[in-house]
Amino acid sequence: MLIDDAVRFLSQIPPFQFLEGPTLREVAQSLTMEFYPKGTVILQQDGPVSESLRIIQKGVVKISIRPKGSGDEEVSDYRERGETFGLVSLMGGHQKTTIVAMQDTICYLLSRESLNDLMSSHPALTEYLLQFHLTKYVDMTSREIQGKSLLLGSSDRLLFTAKVGEICRSAATIVSPEATIREVAGRMAADRQSAALVAGPGGNPIGIVTDSDLRSKVVALGHSIEAPVSQIMSHPVVKADEHEACFEVVLRMLQGNIHHVAVTRGDSLCGVITNHDFMVLQGRSPLAFSEDIERQTTLEGLAPVSQKALTIIGALLREGARAANIIRIISELNDRIVRRVLEIAERELGPPPLPYCWLALGSEGRKEQTFRTDQDNALVYADPPPDLRKEAAEYFARFTAFMRNGLVSCGFEPCPANCMASNSEWCQPISIWRGYFTDWISAPTPKAVLNSQIFFDFRPLHGDESLAWDLREHLNRLIPDYPIFLGFLANMLVKNRPPIGFFGSVAVERSGEHKDGLNLKIKGVTPLVDIARMFSLEQGVRHSSTMERLEALRGGSTLIADLVDELEYAFEFISLLRIHHQYRQMEAGKPIDNFIHLESLSHLERQSLKNAFRLALRVQDQVMERYRSFII
Known about the structure:
Jelly Rolls; CBS-domain; Beta Polymerase, domain 2; 4 domains; four-stranded antiparallel beta sheet; 24 helices
């Protein structure tokens, strides 16, 4: 009976499904079976090699690596039912990864001897296994391995696979704090460097001087060139370890609006990396788009640059970037565009009469936009004294109208539900906003809960951020006093059930424009976003992005504390499917939507989608049990 079960299982998965019946039965008879409870380390990096090819009959395993010199685990893949692992170890004689059961997992084991016999007599099976295990994971030290057979040549260095130590300039100009500005400028010119690092005792960089500093702090202000360089250096220096991925450093440079980073090896200095180095590496760096945005002083100049920035998504997809990384880069560029429009608005309309903060809401607030979507924003300003109320209201009405039109010109369409700061309801003093939040939480009508799902994902994007954090603290203080609000939020959460049918199949649209399609946003991403939001509000988490919220909930006391890895993987997988789908539509000149057809997915992708849906359903069922008195 067990052999018959194994035959039926193998006959449904590649490459065993291509074997003839007698051969398939022989393979099934040679199998053994092992059970690994959740959390079991099946194979350990640098430990004993695998003596069998393991075929996952049930469960999920995580494959990770710890690069030498780094204590950080880098997840390279997850394997599910029907997939195999252990071939690289078995053939290579060295265990390069750690493989852990993420759920209770059952594997069939095909011994080394049986596998060798099978591979020698079936070339097609051999080709499949080698392609899956070796080509897919050719560079196990890469942080982002996407299973796209991404072979890296020595002259094709990629943003997501290269380390900063591999491309930094080792011949950095290093000076002492006592060196004069004249001496430093001479050294930079002689070394043909755009920056000089100022080193303190022990050689640690304590400051940096760039060409820009010489222009803006010395030439423009008439600073004495005989003064010590410590008077004009910027500090502290932004540093990166030589083993960090270039992507992480690019993101840090974007966020900090800096162009030079010191690269270190342990406590010593290796060199400097600049935006130019990334442009050489990639051809068109995200930093280059950022600089294009910063150079624009008018909406007319900003609009085409804004549209052009979308082209970077294609480059990131071709490099095999994770969805989370693509979203982070695009969010940073979108933020730059919005801030630039805000700065233009302030210049055109004059300084605001009161401190204000521009709030990003919804997917923009969560930093989860891909291809630019609707505007979702609001504005909060300081409570005005009586004599300034009218002036403040009139100024911010003009200001938000300018913003709405300016963002439209840059490709951000107006929100159909009018959740924008240009709607006077969402442009208010902070006391009014506190009142909104109090009303929504204390009297959670369906409309109030719907508003909370949009507005409670806010984050400050520009202006006086203390106004936003004051509002966040007010929100977090309120929620523990009104458990009924979480009950109503739970009720909304469980009503959007992932589309898994009674027999485990994925349900699709039965009619209409998107017949046979599956909405990856509403049915895939949204349930996971809602789960992260609800438990974050329950725990008073300040973060707004789904991934940051999940990380903050790891190991805590919530229902999902032990499911963070699985939820992050599900969110990453569905988000990447959605980005690839939308990019293909954009390339084909088609309208962008969220509907994907199951026949376009591989067996593994369909299975992974089902697993993600089942996970969301499992959490929803637990939420229903906890808040059953509120579920309608």
